Amino acid sequence: MYEFFASRCRRKLHWLLCLDADDALFWTRLQRYPALLTQCTPIWFPEWPEEALERIAHHDERPAAVVSVCRRLHQAARGHVHANAATFAELLQLVDAVAAQRRERILGDRQRYLIGLEKLQLAAEQVQRIQEELTSLQPRLAEAAAETREMLSVIETETRKVSEASLLVRSDEAVANEQAAAAQELKSECETELAQAIPILEGTFRVLGKSIKS
Q1: Which is deepest, 56, 60, 151, 199, by most CB within 10 Å?
Q2: How far is CA 202 from the centre of its chain?
Q3: Does residue 109 sit in the same domain as residue 133?
Q4: Does residue 140 share a domain with residue 51?
């Protein structure tokens, strides 16, 4: 609990100290309490030479552009907020972190851009191949279309002939039905007359038989 309390105090508790730089005890206090320089942000302090700042910046072999940006930020803060060697080093680390994040994002965007270009190139190649295939198939398609039109013409002609033949068949069927009906009627008449003639013929045979016996 005490550690939590101490950590919260270190993070949340801020002190404002007013010190006179012309006071004889000022440097004594700085030597006795070095945190006044390392952990505090003075509002006023003599200027740091640019050579010293560049030496601090180039200690970790940073790019010249990063050093230039940090030097400009340091110079812009003069007269308002002091940046000593420690805070200048923190500024360099912050710029390095931001530059690393920016570099990572740029590399990610570049990778996505390259992947997109590859996909576009692949799509363009596929489209080109399809166009070439369609171009090569156009004569075959035209030939197939001509054959289809010719086949449709033949089918139409055959359909017309079949229709005409169907009409003839139906006409012949009607004539055949009429002849069949006439034949059936004649058959019925013959059967009727035969049915009438058979008893007469049988009677005649009986009479003849009796005449022959006598």
Answers
A1: 56
A2: 104
A3: yes
A4: yes
Number of folded domains in the chain? 2
63 in a structural domain: yes
- pLDDT at position 205 over 70: no
Task: Answer whether residue 185 is part of any domain.
Answer: no
125 and 83 together in one domain: yes
Contact call for residues 80 and 42 (beta carbons, < 8 A): no
CA distance 47 to 51: 12
Residues 24 and 129 in one domain: no
Does any domain span residue 188? no
Q: For the purposes of burial, counting CB atoms within 10 Å of the CB of 70, is it exposed (0-12), middle (13-18) or buried (19 or more)?
A: buried
Distance CA(75)–CA(66), nearest Å, equals: 14
Residue type present at position 113: Y
Q: Domain residues for 59?
A: 43-161
**Residue 45 pLDDT exceeds 60:** no
Residues 6+ apart with CB under 8 A from 96: 60, 62, 66
Q: Which residue has the higher pLDDT, 179 or 58?
A: 179
Q: Over 70: is that where the pLDDT of 88 sits?
A: no
Considering the domain architecture, whether residues 35 and 47 belong to the same structural domain is answered as no
